[in-house]
């Protein structure tokens, strides 16, 4: 099938390459010429394992191309919209400027029977408004939220654990053109539907809500365990053992119960804020009032990490050498948007510490937003002369591949703060380090 993807960021670039890899003819459109040039020459403009291989293969097969000109999308059976919906500068709601611009562009080229499939995360009610703009063109607007995780985006796109399609409905029933659009999307995702991946057809509002509800739930799970970490800190309990123990109950599950410096990135923080803002507009702010608590618990963990470093260094970090391992908001990503790791590093710098920071993928992005920090590519160079080391992104380079005995030979002070509870505390203690975890004795 001929497909277009409007917006070639984390979501759109991966979607375009993945759809080409399963046999579709895909054009990716983005307003950013640099991004388009990079993608068109087989280079991923951001770190995403497996993406470059797909780009190279797609370009070589002739199934994949990129352009800044929306005219190139003319004639596609489905136009996916995967542009960003960042937090507004003047508040916590989502900024829909890029979504409106993408739809506006598409209106000039869409034809009868074509499908516009929104993938961006939007406040509930957005799709219905956009459907009004599209009516009269002969095209049909559906909402097909994306659940990919950065770092696993290729696998999540090709083999998602569910596909959700919101279609136009009337009196609680999908309209005939909605049903037809859902069938077209079943065909688009033929590799997943052939494997019986759950394919949920619903109305537009439910589809929009599924996405924000999923992210709100994940954020709640993380903040729940971080709240338990706060209680553990005043009782001498160990939150990691607690998480293991409650995680064995398969109604609860161990995943997303990793206590530490909390969640960040381009999705969870802004999505829970946008959800709370939308609920308020709908007169239902009390229904998701807990999301504000979730946000606050999350941000308090960054304060706690800074406080631990100050305490571990005897009450002041002024002119102390602090090595920060990690800058990305999570491993397998170079994304530093709302990164707890970089936030902790810049706050310690603000308190007068001499920060040396390293990361396997995110140094260039971090340097752009926090140029005041000292960046070192080599992990071992970064560790030399540290009075204290803090792990803030659980890359394997720090979690598995850093031998505490070897680390002890590099640092000046054997003090380690494990901001992600990802290290073997016993091994670090045995190597002579004073070990501090988050919510651990
Ligand atoms: C998240 C969701 O997991 C995806 O399903 C969703 O599609 C995506 O947002 C999106 O809306 O686009 P992502 O932001 O890539 O994906 O990252 P996650 O793996 O969810 O991690 C989010 C943050 O939570 C990271 O900072 C991570 O370090 C933190 N986290 C995660 C914890 O602090 N503890 C945990 O146990 C798990």
Summarize this structure as a short list of keywords or feature phrases.
alpha/beta; Rossmann fold; 2 domains; six-stranded parallel β-sheet; 18 helices; globular; binds uridine-5'-diphosphate-glucuronic acid; 441 residues; 16 strands
Structure, described:
The structure is a single chain. The chain has helices spanning 10-21, 33-40, 51-61, 97-107, 126-134, 153-158, 176-188, 190-194, 204-235, 239-247, 268-281, 290-312, 340-350, 363-369, 379-383, 396-399, 404-410, 425-430, and strands at residues 2-6, 25-29, 64-67, 78-81, 115-118, 140-143, 163-167, 169-170, 173-174, 199-203, 321-325, 354-358, 374-375, 388-391, 415-418, 434-436. The protein folds into two domains: 2-197, NAD(P)-binding Rossmann-like Domain (Rossmann fold); 236-441, Rossmann fold, CATH 3.40.50.720. It is globular, with a radius of gyration of 23 Å. It has 18 helices and 16 strands. Strand 8 (169-170) and strand 9 form a beta hairpin. It is α/β, with parallel strands linked by helices and 441 residues long. The mean pLDDT is 97. The site of uridine-5'-diphosphate-glucuronic acid (UGA) has 21 residues, from helix 9.
Name given to the CATH homologous superfamily of the largest domain: NAD(P)-binding Rossmann-like Domain
Largest sheet, order of strands side by side?
A: 3-2-1-4-5-6
Number of domains: 2
Whole-Å distance between the termini? 57 Å
Poorly predicted segments: none
CATH class annotation of the largest domain: Alpha Beta
Give the beta-strand count: 16
Q: Which architecture name of the largest domain does CATH use?
A: 3-Layer(aba) Sandwich
Task: Predict the CATH topology of the largest domain.
Answer: Rossmann fold
**Kindly state the mean pLDDT as a whole number?**
97
Main β sheet profile: 6 strands, parallel
